[in-house]
Amino acid sequence: MLDTSPWGDEWQTSPANRRAYQRIDEVTSTAVVPRGDGPVLELTVGAPLDVPGLEAELEALRTDGLIVVRGREIVLERYLNGMTPGTRHLLQSVTKSLCAAVVGRFVDRGEVDPSAALGSYVEELQGSAYGDATVQQALDMSVAVAYDETYDDLASDVNTHDRVSGWKHRRDGDPVGTTAFLAGLERSGEHGRTWFYSSANTDVLAWVLERVSGRPFSELLSTELWSRLGAEHDAFITVDAHGFALASGGGCVTLRDLARFGRLLLDGGIGPAGEQVLPRAWVDEMLRGGDPGLDVSEMPAVLAAPTYRNQVWHTGDDHGCAFGVGIFGQFVWMNPATDTVVAKLSTLDAADAEEPFAAHVALLDRLSQA
To answer: Hey, where are the domains in the chain?
Structure first.
């Protein structure tokens, strides 16, 4: 584990995040996620979009990188704050969508059953909140778990999660490692009845994949997804002192490669060589939207009718837009109606303030329809 003291525990917040999000391998321990030796998904340069006032908007939204890909043509690309096409940038919770894609391959092979209890795969979870919750409930954020995801409260569970995963210095009494933390979370009610966002759910899914395969998630992310989607660069993912990867938020990729992930989904799971990288049925499920009966009240009202399915958000608009989002302004936005992916990497001042989120949604939606 690298010593995080040169950066301190506040590297996620402004102004330190302006540098740290592009240097995560200097901040904490990471594992390389190799792209392999397969073909790169070629993105050609198309006729550029003319977006009046864009530059000022990007500055206001603390943009590090923005790309718009229609079909397989780049129609807009910007880099700010020292970022370059080869810079790997922290994804935060967009990483969750990558994890869900890997889960889909295990489901397709019959190695993971979405209706099975998480505790049936990972014995250590029995007796915890996750013992009798299903894989699908974890995917859809409908596990009843006592987990406080208040980012600016240092006593919250999400901050403990950060510490045990190596993002901050441990405190006396903290569990030793991410898996010990996950196994200690308690149930808060009946599973499947309400929607409740908990980053712990995604790391539990990664633990299930590790237990089923006998391989670390950082390796699975490469062999099952990253080496197949046509990425140009290796990715990184942060790992704790035991090598357990933070599937809920530790991914670090380049801007174009994030757009390539979005293209993989919009292309129905078809990779650069025409092969079926992700099962078509799973991709359709990721993009179709979730149960409207689960109240996604945490998402601001700027979205038409938001739902959540398989670690992906859905706007509920007539274009069927879906997106992954991470705190401090990370997005991959997919518009099936216009066959457009918009990827944006940022370092906002606040983790999840409503005003910049609404401004991002308006911008990404406008760009995807331009």
So the answer is: 20-369
Structure tokens at 349: 């001042």
Which residue in the block uniquely carries the two structure tokens 């092969």? 275
SS3 235: strand
- pLDDT, one tens digit per residue, over 271-322 is 999 999 999 999 999 999 999 988 887 776 688 899 999 999 999 999 999 9
Closest CA to 130 of 183, 194, 177, 180: 183
Specify whether the CB–CB gap between 58 and 78 falls below 8 A: yes
Please indicate whether residue 93 is annotated as part of the active site.
Answer: yes
Q: How many CA atoms lie within 13 A of 249 on its CB side?
A: 24
Spatial CB neighbours of 195, under 8 Å, sequence gap ≥ 6: 140, 141, 142, 294, 295, 296, 297, 308
Overall CATH class of domain 20-369: alpha beta
pTM given for the model: 0.97
As beta bridge partners, residue 31 has 237
Distance of CA 237 to the CA centre of its chain: 11
Using CA atoms, how far residue 126 sits from 192, 330, 364, in Å, is: 18, 34, 42
- Could you tell me the sign of the dihedral formed by the alpha carbons of 186, 189, 191, 193, in that order? negative
Of the listed 29, 93, 218, 248, which one is catalytic?
93
Radius of gyration, CA atoms only, the chain: 19
